[in-house]
Design goal:
With 406 residues, the protein is mainly alpha-helical. The protein has 16 helices and three strands.
Length: 406
Amino acid sequence: MGRWKWEGTDKAGKKMSGSMQARSEREVRKVLRAKSIRTRKVIPPSILEFDLTEWMVDKGLAKSFGTFELCSFTKQLAIMIDAGVPILQCFEILYKSEKNMVLKKTIQDIAISVGEGKTIADSMEKQSGFNKLYCSLVRAGEVGGILDQILRKLAEHMDRQQKIRSQIKSAMTYPAIVVLIGFLVIYGMMVFVVPKFLEMLQDSKQEVPFVTQMVVDISNFFQSFALHIVGVLIFAFVLLKSYIKTPGGKVVYDKLTMNVPIFGGIIIKGNLASLTRTLSTMLSAGVALVDALNICIDTIDNKVIAQDIVVVRKAVIEGKTLTEPLSKIEYFPDMVAQMIKVGEQTGNLDQMLLKIADVFEEQVNVLVNNMTKLIEPIIIVVLGGIVAVIMIAMYLPIFMQAGGDD
C-alpha cells in the first residue's frame, strides 16, 4: 500500500485533485467513484515513498497484536463513539495514535472498508485478530444502536479473560524457573563436580560405595550423552507440540490436562468462567441463545468442553432448556446448573450467567493459590533431595576412609 495521487472532476465538472492511501489504482478509482468523482489521472506512489512498516506487515514480519492491544483499541473506540465522534474520524484518531504496526494497518483497512459503505462488523471479519465473538457482538451493537455499550462489554470481557490467563501463567512461572535452575545446578554438579571427586577416589584406590558408584555412572552418562539428551528432548517437544496442534491431539491433550490434580480444576473452572461470561455478554446484547452457543463453541480453547457445548446446543435446538443438557456434564457443578435454571425461569439468564462467571473466577483464584502453595515445597523437597543424595555419595567415601584410618 502507498499514497496515490489523483486528478478528476466532480459532478459539476469542477477540477479536483488529491492523494490517498491505497493498494492499487483500481482501489483508488473505486473510492473516488463512490464519492461521485470522475477520475482523469492516477499517479502511482514514488519509490521514495516506500513504507518499510507496511511492507513488513504485508510480509508477515511485524509482531501481531494481542488481547492487550485489542482491548485498548476497543475501550478507546467505545469512548469516542459514546462521545458522538463520527466513526471514520474515530478510526483516523486510533490509526494515528496506534503503536502496533499490524493493528495500525488493520485499523486503516477497516476504515477504508467502512468508507466504502460496509458495516464495521463486516469490515472486521475480513481482518485477522477479530474472532467470531467480537464480530458478532459488534454486529449486534450496530443493529441495536448500542455499539458503545457493546464495545465496553467486550473490553470488560477481554480484561477478565486476560486476568485469568495471567494468574495461571504467574502461578506456573515461579515453579518453572525454580525447576530449571535446580536442574542446571544438578547438571553442573554431575558434569563438573562429580568427576573431581572421582579422580580423588581413583588416586586413593579406595573401594567405592554403591551410592557413590550410582552417582558416578549417572555422571558418566550425562557427560557422554548430554547433547543426545538435549536433542531428544527438543525433538520430543516439537513432536508433541505438532501433535497437539492436530484436532485429535488437541482433544487428547485437553482431556489429560483436565484430569491433572488441582491444575485440571484450574483448566475446567477457567474455561467455564470464559463460557458463562461469553454467553452472558452475547445474551445481554440480544443474540439468540443458539447463536450464542455456536459462537462459544468456536471461541473456547478447550476442545473437550467445546464438544460438550455442541451437545448442549443440539439439545437447545430440540426444544430443551439450557439446564437439562448442562446438568448431564460430569464436570459442570450441580449448584451452577440450578442457578442457570433459576435464571431461565425468571428471565434473567444473562445476569445469572454473569454472577456464575464471577464465582468461577473466584474459584480459579483459590485453586491457583493452593497450587502455588503445594508445588513450591514439593519442588524444593525433590530438588533438595537429589542434591543431598549427590553430596552424600561424594562425601561418603571420605567419611569411610576417615573411619578406617581410626
